[in-house]
Amino acid sequence: MLGLLPNFLKFKKTNDLVRIGRDNDGGYLVSRNDIDNSDILISFGISEDWSFEVDFINKKKIPLIAFDPFINKDYFLKKIKESICEFYRIKKLFYNLKLYFSYKKFFTGNRLHIQKFIGTNKLINHNKEHSTIKKIFNDIKYSNIFLKIDIEGSEYSLLDDLVYYQERIRGMVIEFHNCDVNIWKLEIFIKKFHLNLIHIHPNNYTGVNHNGLPITLELTFSKNNQLFNIDSLPHILDMPNQKLKNEIFISFYN
């Protein structure tokens, strides 16, 4: 499958990209230099997959704060109980047991899961289960923050705050959804955001629109200044999000 991207998304690569997270959906390419120089990892959106966080922490033992409003121990216990009732689906039971014990084991000590949405001040005024980038960055004092953002379309409400606090961001992976109708927001953000765009990966779950524009894009930003011209996409470490579908190959246009 061929995808077409506007020239403002052209990027330069580093020679130290590593894959963090599981194969296929849930893994991202980041600069090893950014991992080594980060003081804390903050994740917005984990759902039932914290493989990125596990891999990152295994490479650099730093604190983690993960925000996701939908999961907790009770959530996984409920799934286990439902699986027991469906005794004929034994694989589902073992999967949910594995999730529960993995969650319980990993989120301890300085690895925190906070059951809150991430949004704007307008949202937080209406729902106490929301937090904001402003509050988070004011509460923590670290200067080199690595961000992982996958919040299913709500990322656009965070862009102004990301620009405002960019001096404290060491690296960032962010998934942009609905790019076919929001590409102009992405262009404005990239012009204001001074970290280097070092990798792009189109998510093949959602494919491309009638103009060839990928609907979902995974972008990696970095403070690493050891940059080179890109050669081709996908990168050798890239994997299709949906392994049963073809990867999207990218070309750029003016």
- Ends: how far apart? 20 Å
Secondary-structure element string: EEEEHEHEHHEEHEHEHEHEEEE
- Estimate what percentage of residues fall within beta strands: 25-35%
**Overall residue-averaged pLDDT value:** 93
The rough form would be described as globular
Enumerate the strands of the largest sheet in spatial order, edge to edge or round the barrel: 7-6-5-10-11-13-12
CATH class of the largest domain: Alpha Beta
Structural class: alpha/beta
Number of helices: 8
The counted number of beta strands is 15
* CATH structural fold name of the largest domain: Rossmann fold
Oligomer: single chain
Q: Could you say how many structural domains there are in total?
A: 2
CATH architecture of the largest domain: 3-Layer(aba) Sandwich
Compute the gyration radius: what is it? 19 Å
Poorly predicted runs are none
Query: Describe the biggest sheet?
Result: 7 strands, mixed
- Give the helix level as a range of percent: 25-40%
How would you summarize what this structure contains?
This protein has 254 residues and is an alpha/beta fold.
Fold and architecture overview:
This protein is 30% helix and 26% strand. By secondary structure, the protein is of the alpha/beta class. The chain has two domains: 209 residues, Rossmann fold (3-Layer(aba) Sandwich), CATH 3.40.50; 35 residues, no CATH class. It has a seven-stranded mixed β-sheet, sandwiched between helices. Strands 1-15 form a two-stranded parallel ribbon. The protein has a two-stranded antiparallel sheet with strand order 2-14. Helix 2 links the parallel strand 5 and strand 6. Helix 3 packs antiparallel against helix 4. The relative contact order is 0.22. The mean pLDDT is 93.
